Amino acid sequence: MPSPSLSLESLHAAIVDAHSALRPAVAVTPLSYSARLSAKTGCEVYLKCEHLQHTGSFKFRGASNKLRLLPDEQRRRGVITASSGNHGQGLALAGRMLGVPVTVYTTTTASAYKLQAMHDLGAEVISLDLDPLSVEVQAARYASEQGKPFVSPYNDWDIVAGQGTLGMELHAQAPALDAVFVAVGGGGMIAGIGAALRTLAPDVEVIGCWPANAPTLQRSLEAGQVIEVDEAPTLSDGTAGGVESDSITFPLCQQLVSRTVLVSEAQIKAAMREVASCERWIIEGAAAVAVAGMRQLAHAYQGKRVAVVLCGRNILLDKFLEAIA
């Protein structure tokens, strides 16, 4: 749930606490220099390898932080969430490690690979024939009726603080960054990274990247308020869906996001292919959005040091192969 205090100072303090408390359960992922992407773009490109995080996504950070901070009574009761896959997987693994029962509500269109992964990690998975934001609303209602905590994928102070540990690592691994490119859905990851870097390295530009087919939060930032946007299907299923009207990430992103960029489905596919070709890594659509955003804005960062967050790898192999064909 939203925190009564939304100051950047208090959020940074929560991130610092999470950064130490979550080890060693949450891995410190590598920041890998890409010689080939650097040569192609004219930037000094570093890839933050969150696709190598446990469950194959950054979401394990926030989920772990949320569950560690729950009172014992709420842990025993279990938690409910809504997720297209990565948040659900992260919460399922964190729940298994801490003995917390996890129920995940999801859409009927969610990735079969991600649904199976949540189930294999011990979560109860329930699909609803609704859009992603409606699934969130319904899951929160079920949680209230059952007296269980609802763990939002992004609209939660503890979740954002957990994702912010990424920013702490980025600063430690590359203290002289000029910019960091981050794919955005609900805004939890970019808000956490931005809050960490605003204190540690305030001159770093935090650049939000969206698929042009699913730009709800980006359009909301332009409008100055959370709005509904008709979204089209996208390879970046991890960033698709609406944003809750009271989301704490909206005012945080207003303060912390330096610049925004939209990328096409063709650019997402090209980025997936390029990372596979240059680095021999499988990444999912959301991670490719950040790579595509960096490629599109590379002209503005010639000779500068930039980081791109590869936020996940959870994609069906056939879908990946089709995308890069």
Describe the protein.
The chain is α/β, with parallel strands linked by helices and about 325 residues long. It folds into two domains: about 10-55 and about 160-325, Rossmann fold (3-Layer(aba) Sandwich); about 60-155, Rossmann fold. Helices cover about 50% and strands about 15% of the residues. The chain has 15 helices and ten strands. Strands 1-2-10-7-8-9 form a six-stranded mixed sheet, with helices on both faces. A four-stranded parallel sheet has the order 5-4-3-6, with helices on both faces. The longest helix has 15 residues, at about 130-145. The chain starts with 7 loop residues before the first helix and ends with a helix. The mean pLDDT is about 95.
